[in-house]
Amino acid sequence: MFSKLLLIPRNFTTQSPTPTFLPPLPNFPFHLKFFSHKFPSISQLSVPFYTHLPQASPSRNQQQEGEDEDEDEVEAQARAAVSGILRESGVSEEESVEIASKSPKYVKMLVDGVRDLEEWNSWRKGDEEDVSFQEKVYCLAREKGDYGRLAFLESIGLSLSSALNVARYLSTESLPVLIEKVKFVKEMFFSSEDSEGFLGKNARRMMMHLSIPIDEDLQQTLSFFEKIEARRGGLAMLCSKDASFGYLVESFPRLLLLSVESHLKPMMKFLEDVGVEGGSMRNLLLLYPPIIFYEIEKDIKPRLRAFEKIGAAEKDLGRMLVKYPWIISTSIQENYENILSFFDGEKVPKSSVDSAIKSWPHLLGCSTLKLKVMVEQFGEFDVRNKKLGKVIATSPQLLLQKPNEFLEVVSFLEELGFDRETVGRILCRCPEIFAANIEETLKKKLEFLSSIGISDDHLPRVIRKYPEIFVSDINRTLLPRTKYLRRTGLSKRDIAFMIRRFSPLLGYSVEEVLRPKLEFLVQTMEKPLKEVVEYPRYFSYSLEKKIKPRFWVIKGRNVDCSLKDMLAKNDEEFAADFMDVEGMPTDPSHY
């Protein structure tokens, strides 16, 4: 009816039958008039200001205050009218007041509609004097037929235009049921906070590494991300229900049509059974909302079973889903087969490929053409077949790098004096280095080594023997270890000398290796600290399997020898020098 009235958009009316619990529209002592002719413009309606007539001259502030008070009263009456409509739809008084207060654009639309009707004298002359503004708003809202759904949808974060669109999907849902469903869905999708913004970072990473044609579900997901990204705070706000819930419903309006008992709760139970719980549930649903529409038996289980080809157990599937929820999309499923065929053609061991995909399923969103570019880069350093398998099993994310990022690290190492063959060996031994940031990680490790007395001339040797130093945490591992050695009485110069001779020393735990072996050296073997300065490789041998057995043999022979003589010899040499071969202790292996 009201679609013919001035300034009221046609799409404001929702096509839904009047719920049985709503009373019929009462017979107000006024009626709405229709106009078939074209209305004049606002400029044609302006009243001329005659300067020769006497004019009232209240102060500007007083006039503004009066207008503000009138406007506040109008809005209050309009909100009360909306609240009344909500209560008639079965909403509690408290909730109806809250919804009306959180739907200002909907309220304003009704206010403007009533004012337009008043301006054109659409209220029957004489009767309108007995009708309050609140009653007029109420009448207009009832005639619109959305029964409070638009106000509610705006109150949960949708724009009014989006609410109009979403309301069409919800024409059969009563408002109380809809309100309870929204509470359940919010709890399901936003069960915990993400203060560090990890969810947004993962969303950005997933988009960045996606390089294959995508299906409709993935396209809808990306559109949802784009809406969040356009907000202040960007994707970091993805886990905020206040910031993103409205966009979630706007992007996936059918979400509120799903049954709580027969669909949403069974879905939660299934995901929990495969290891997706708590904050992980939130991550999965927000990173791939279309999963909520899938049928468990028809869609999800068959797609997860596809990963049995890589030996993924149920616990692996849960972890893969949390890391990369897109694994059950149609696009990723198809690309999964392509990737397996690609690595088979490159003769990479299947066990390495399986491990890479399970630990970094983001690979499945990468095209084989892009993977081939990085595989060829590794091949230039003689990293192929089994060597390539070792690299991707340890650091599968390297395959998703841009070639220039990889080559920047190569150039950094070459500037330190390493040739391409050595760079290839470092790549095989510690591929994590090639995913590290040069300024924030690699150069800071060089600065640390310099601070403990390692000169530039000795850096290549130290790094060649222990490249893992580049990916060791300075504050958590390197500093505590050097500080412990200083506390034992070793000087800074002693420590630098030890590291130059045996840089893996920095990789040993204080509690598990350094302390027990030093205590045995000093307290039981009664040797001075200078012995480990001369032979720091002492820390590389097993205390129980080699150091102690050989020490007791030597002590039993009443022989005095250096750590190197005691430990550096192989079993045959040690036996020949210090005991009968038949009496040699077994299994004297070192780390």
> How widely separated are the two ends?
86 Å
Number of helices, counting only DSSP H or I runs of 4 residues or more: 30
Rg on CA atoms, Å: 37 Å
Uncertain parts: 1-56, 581-591
Query: Could you describe the largest sheet, including whether it forms a barrel?
Result: none
Number of strands: 0
The chain-level mean pLDDT equals 85
> Strand portion, in percent?
under 5%
Q: Approximately how much helix is present in the residues?
A: 55-70%
Tell me the structural class.
Answer: mainly alpha
Order of helices and strands: HHHHHHHHHHHHHHHHHHHHHHHHHHHHHH
**What general outline do the C-alpha atoms trace?**
elongated
Characterise the protein shown here.
The protein is mainly α. It contains 30 helices and no strands. It has helices at residues 42-45, 60-88, 93-101, 104-119, 133-144, 149-155, 160-169, 175-189, 198-208, 216-229, 241-251, 260-273, 279-287, 296-305, 314-323, 330-345, 350-359, 368-379, 385-394, 403-415, 420-429, 438-451, 459-465, 474-487, 492-501, 510-524, 530-534, 543-556, 563-567, 571-578. Helix 2 packs across helix 5, helix 4 (104-119) packs across helix 5 (133-144) and helix 6 (149-155) crosses helix 7 (160-169). The longest helix has 29 residues, at 60-88. The radius of gyration is 37 Å and the shape is elongated.
